[in-house]
Amino acid sequence: MNEVKKIVVVGGGQMGCGIAQVAAQSNFAVLLIDSQEEALARAESNISKSLNKLHEKGKIKEEASTILERISYDKSLKSAVAFAPQMMIEAVSENEALKTKIFFELDSLLPKDCIFCSNTSSISITRLAASTKRPENFMGMHFMNPVPLMPLVEIIEGLGTSKEVSKLVRATAEKMGKTCVLSKDRAGFIINRVLMPMINEAFWALGEELGTAEDIDAGMKLGTNQPMGPLTLADFIGLDTTLSILGVLQESYGEKFRPAPLLRQYVEAGWLGRKSGRGVYEYNS
Ligand code: CAA
């Protein structure tokens, strides 16, 4: 296979929506699958809002309605069969058992040459690929949040990924207007291996009352020229996701990635960041 035209995205959360959106913006036909009806309705509305905003700002030329026509929605994984995609991108939550179940089922439904990608931010691509009979056609494709605005895709080759597939996945991400970096298949890959220690340290610092949350964030934002401080960024990523990624890193690299107790406590309290209305900061909407 030498060209991808149709992409199935599994998972209608923030990441899955963003991936479906940028794929449709780049002229791919997209089928977005989520088992929850409400998630699909929310996905459709969020993608439409995002596209309208980008169009109003002149960041995309096509009308939102034209782009939206390229996306169809379905509840069942079986709908992927008739859609006949060349690529499938899984973007469900960071739950290895759930991801493996989806890959296993789709492996029996889709032709052998359909490329399977996972948007996992930290789970081993080699291990996920082992739940299928197509390790050569399996790759990590890690988009950054918010997908429509962030220019990077981190691509990860599993032990069995073929060089041809790696090239095709890179070319597909580039068609979506993204720049790729290639990481080996090690816990956290490149981005989270380097990003998470900073976020974790900010929680240790906050727990020790080294400074207020506002000062820690302003210090890093203004002092090191980052778009948002590490605590704001953690709220944005989700404190549960942050904790789970740190857990994966700690398992591989040990003590230096031990999550700060304050981060764990926030998650235990249900303070998960923006999505729950409260994290390090409070959010009204
Ligand atoms: N679609 C369309 N528009 C969007 C949008 C989306 N999905 N998300 C935000 N916007 C809009 C906002 O509504 C806002 O619009 P208005 O100007 O009309 O208010 C506009 O984009 C710009 O937003 P802001 O003015 O708030 O902020 P900004 O211009 O500085 O850019 C940002 C926003 C790109 C998110 C920037 O703050 C940023 O780069 N933050 C860091 C994000 C980051 O590091 N992401 C990676 C996280 S790590 C990760 O994803 C990997 C992992 O595994 C954890």
List keywords for this structure.
single chain; 285 residues; alpha/beta; eight-stranded mixed beta sheet; 12 helices; globular; binds acetoacetyl-coenzyme A
Question: Could you characterize what this model shows?
Answer:
- The chain has 285 residues and is of the alpha/beta class.
- Helix content is 47%, strand content 14%.
- It is built from twelve helices and eight strands.
- It has helices spanning 14-25, 37-56, 64-68, 79-83, 96-109, 125-129, 163-175, 191-207, 213-224, 230-237, 239-253, 261-268; strands at 6-10, 29-33, 71-74, 87-90, 115-118, 138-143, 152-157, 179-183.
- The chain has an eight-stranded mixed beta sheet with strand order 3-2-1-4-5-6-7-8, sandwiched between helices.
- Strand 1, helix 1 (14-25) and strand 2 (29-33) form a beta-alpha-beta unit.
- Helix 1 (14-25) packs across helix 2 (37-56) and helix 8 packs across helix 10.
- It is globular and about 55 Å long.
- The termini are far apart.
- The mean pLDDT is 97.
- The structure holds acetoacetyl-coenzyme A (CAA).
- Spatial order of strands in the largest sheet: 3-2-1-4-5-6-7-8
- Percent of residues in helical segments? 40-55%
Tell me the series of helices and strands, N- to C-terminal.
Answer: EHEHHEHEHEHEEHEHHHHH
Q: Please count the beta strands (DSSP E, at least 2 residues each).
A: 8
Gross morphology: globular
For the sheet with most strands, the description reads: 8 strands, mixed
Mean pLDDT: 97
Bound ligands, each once = acetoacetyl-coenzyme A
Low-confidence stretches: none
Radius of gyration: 19 Å
Content of β-strand? 5-15%
Structural class: alpha/beta
> Count of helices?
12
Distance between the termini: 45 Å
